[in-house]
Design goal:
Largest sheet: 6 strands, antiparallel
Shape: globular
Strand content: 15-25%
Radius of gyration: 21 Å
Strand order of the largest sheet: 5-10-6-7-8-9
Structural class: alpha+beta
Number of strands: 15
Length: 350
């Protein structure tokens, strides 16, 4: 461990940028100023570590000199479509050297892709969800499912609505397809739509589909979590898969973990769903990211007229902005992880 005795732990904050952004990055002027401030309140020394594509050696050298690395980098960039494979290779090296990395790329692979919807579909947040590991499987199985009702088809990796389509039967062999990214509507033969999906399976990609939730216009609840504890909520009306006349979605409204509207959801997450999810995914509780979120749509009312919640995705790679209260929660989780690691390191040396 680099931090020892009275010296503070050093924590690098990683986000994507260019060479100029890296050179000019300052905690107080960055997008993550509130994160740096919260780390400081917990006695942690935060430093910017901007990831520049093609400069892996530079970032690796910096990260090898800190105690923890907190990462906010999307799996796919909105503008260029670039992935983060080179960054993930660096992060795996750094983690193997004993440095805390959150979220570790292997943890993202287990919980932060759409495949988690299939692996946890038997839980209380699950729905009739299916994985297509090949284009042949999609062609064989999807037509029968969409014939029974509207489906939402999703690439295993993506963000901001990239690679998400609502598909429902139209006249004859046609389907009505709405793309979440730009809300465009097309009526086209189902076979033609399925042919377009060939590219989604390139380089080991998969597709997941689940039933379209009829109550989606009543809003989505984003549950923010730090480690195993709920750290806040975000409530938003979502219109990405709504008819165009519903207009653009209003901004998400944030609240802390004590928000009375969502205490039932909080209880389910902390007492039931998070412990069960970690077991199903083969994760230890202390491997969960210092901040992650689960997006829920409202399912059918249950027998006692209570809302049910249907998981539509988990975000683990670049969760920001977050509720104000979540900043101190993530700092506390980071400090706890570092203190535990220091205790193990000290015990080994004794």
């Amino acid at each position: 461990m680099h931090g020892s005795g009275s010296s503070p732990f050093k924590v690098a904050i990683v986000w994507r940028g260019d060479a100029r952004a890296r050179a000019e990055a300052r905690p107080e002027t960055s997008r993550f100023a509130a994160v740096f401030a919260s780390l400081g309140r917990y006695g942690l020394a935060g430093e910017p570590a901007v990831w520049v594509e093609g400069q892996a050696d530079l970032l690796r050298a910096q990260l090898m000199a800190v105690d923890a690395v907190l990462v906010w980098v999307n799996p796919v960039t909105d503008d260029t479509g670039a992935g983060r494979g080179a960054l993930d290779a660096v992060l795996r090296e750094v983690a193997a050297a004993g440095i805390l990395v959150s979220a570790h790329p292997d943890v993202i692979d287990r919980m932060g892709t759409k495949e988690v919807l299939v692996r946890t579909r038997e839980m209380g947040w699950g729905s009739d969800t299916h994985l297509y590991a090949s284009h042949a499987a999609l062609v064989a199985e999807f037509p029968g499912r969409v014939a029974e009702g509207p489906r939402v088809l999703k690439r295993s990796r993506g963000n901001g609505g990239i690679g998400v389509w609502k598909v429902e039967r139209a006249a004859g062999s046609d389907v009505l397809v709405q793309e979440a990214r730009d809300r465009s509507l097309r009526t086209m033969p189902l076979d033609a739509f399925l042919t377009e999906r060939v590219a989604d399976f390139a380089a080991g990609g998969t597709l997941v589909d689940q039933p379209f939730q009829a109550r989606h216009l009543e809003g989505m609840v984003r549950c923010y979590v730090s480690g195993t504890r709920v750290a806040g909520f975000g409530a938003q009306h979502v219109t990405a898969l709504a008819p165009p006349e519903h207009g653009r979605a209003p901004p998400r409204l944030y609240s802390g973990p004590e928000d009375g509207r969502f205490q039932r959801l909080r209880g389910l997450m902390e007492a039931v769903w998070i412990p069960r999810m970690t077991g199903l995914l083969g994760l230890e509780p202390d491997e969960l990211p210092v901040v992650w979120d689960a997006d829920f749509l409202l399912g059918p009312k249950d027998a006692s007229s209570e809302d049910t919640y249907v998981l539509c995705e988990i975000n683990a790679s670049s969760v920001y902005p977050i509720p104000d209260e979540a900043h101190d929660a993530l700092a506390a989780t980071t400090l706890r992880g570092l203190a535990d690691a220091r205790a193990r390191w000290t015990a080994r040396r004794a």
